[in-house]
Write a structure and sequence with these properties.
Blueprint (H helix, E strand, L loop, with lengths): L2 H6 L3 E7 L6 H13 L5 E7 L6 H11 L3 E6 L5 H11 L4 E4 L10 H10 L4 E9 L4 H17 L8 E8 H8 L8 H7 L4 E8 L11 H15 L2 H29 L8 H34 L6 E5 L7 H4 L4 H6 L6 H15 L3
Parallel strand pairs: 1-2, 1-4, 2-3, 5-7
Antiparallel strand pairs: 3-8, 4-6, 5-6
Helix pairs in contact: 10-11
The chain binds uridine-5'-diphosphate (UDP) and magnesium ion.
Length: about 350
């Protein structure tokens, strides 16, 4: 590697997705600065503003003006938490990249322990929640059930009770950048890439302020993305169920014929017929729906839209290939400050990730 490159690149990149978090941003910044002081090495924070409609962007830009270590990617709309993390990975330059939530549920102090593990030689350090404060019984229960389900049916070993809060070595990040699937479950992808992984335990704090941005609807969607991305078991279930039903009805037919021959016709009332037909119809619809879940995701892959659109990028060097795209806006590129180059970023977003593989 070019030695100048490692001098330019920070040691740590923190990736923080932000969606309407105006109440937490100032405190988050203070806490981060405090903790990172103890680390000693250079660092940057990449805030990914995921289409906030409150003052989040304004606050982030104020921080960026004050502290050049703070960089901001501003999405053109809300693309979702997992996509925001993906963008962070695409733009992070650090030797180690750390993903954390903005709401201080992932206490910055845990970073120190993660960094220690990384220095010992681990490539992925994921944080496992031993306790979760300030969350509803329903969320705790559904989360626990979900982690166990995905653990048992996934093709890769996805650790229990670990969220997206984790540290990754640069080579893991470069591997992650190559995974461009549309329905993203980042923790699963992080298991899929392999490398030397280790857990650190922590107690998940309550949200510092504001409401959760993961209502039930989004949680279910994430769970479906996780399951369809990492398991074919739901599809195979149709086969197993089919065999069971065929077997049971085979026995049923024999019993019915036998009873008829014995002169007992009571078994075959209209209600029995109706109930069994409706039951089977319901089961078939469920499996059609499951096939639909996979099919919809295949369709998304085939359309192959970019994962996200960056409207503005603050604090990043324009990648070289931007120049090829910038004919109409070349004046902007050559004459403006970094913050107004951003329009060009939108066009180049899709190009950045693949080329970054060779970074
Ligand atoms: N978030 C985001 N886009 C979304 C939803 C959430 O960037 O569409 C961010 C949010 O600002 C926070 C993190 O993702 O930093 C996790 O969200 P939240 O804390 O609401 O999830 P929870 O901890 O309740 O599961
Ligand atoms: Mg949270």
């Amino acid at each position: 590697m070019d030695p100048r490159e490692s001098q330019l690149r920070p040691t740590f990149s923190l990736v923080i997705p932000v969606w309407n978090e105006e109440q937490v941003i100032p405190v988050l910044y203070e806490r981060l600065v405090q903790v990172m002081k103890g680390v000693g090495d250079s660092w940057e924070v990449i805030f990914v503003n995921d289409g906030s409609t409150d003052r989040s962007l304004e606050l982030l830009l104020e921080l960026h003006e004050r502290d050049p270590r703070i960089k901001v990617l501003n999405f053109s709309r809300n693309f979702g938490h997992q996509i925001a993390i993906t963008a962070g990975f695409d733009y992070a330059d650090g030797d180690a990249v750390i993903v954390m939530d903005a709401d201080l549920q992932d206490p910055p102090e845990v970073l120190l322990r993660m960094i220690e593990r990384w220095r010992e030689g681990y490539d992925v350090v994921y944080a496992v929640r031993t306790k979760r404060e300030g969350e509803s019984k329903f969320k705790l229960w559904t989360a626990a059930a979900f982690y166990r389900l995905i653990h048992s049916i996934a093709d890769v070993d996805i650790p229990l009770d670990a969220g997206d809060f984790r540290l990754m070595d640069r080579r893991v990040v470069l591997a992650m950048r190559r995974l461009r699937e549309k329905s993203r479950f980042m923790r699963g992808l992080s298991s899929w890439v392999g490398f030397k992984q280790i857990a650190v335990e922590y107690e998940r704090a309550p949200r510092y302020a504001g409401e959760t941005k993961y209502p039930l609807r989004k949680m279910v969607r994430l769970a479906f993305n996780a399951i369809t991305s990492f398991s074919h078991v739901p599809l195979q279930l149709a086969t197993y169920t089919g065999f069971v039903f065929a077997g049971v009805s085979g026995v049923g037919i024999i019993i019915a014929i036998f009873m008829r021959l014995m002169g007992n016709a009571q078994l075959l009332g209209q209600a029995t017929t109706l109930v069994s037909v409706l039951f089977l119809g319901g089961v078939q619809l469920i499996f059609l729906g499951i096939i639909g879940e996979y099919l919809g995701r295949i369709y998304d892959e085939v359309k192959n839209r970019p994962l996200y659109i960056v409207a503005d990028a603050y604090g990043f060097d324009p990648p070289a290939q931007l120049m090829f795209h910038a004919s109409r806006r070349s004046q902007v590129v050559s004459s403006s400050s970094e913050s107004t180059q951003s329009a060009v970023h939108a066009e180049a977003t899709t190009n950045r990730a693949p080329s970054a593989d060779n970074a």
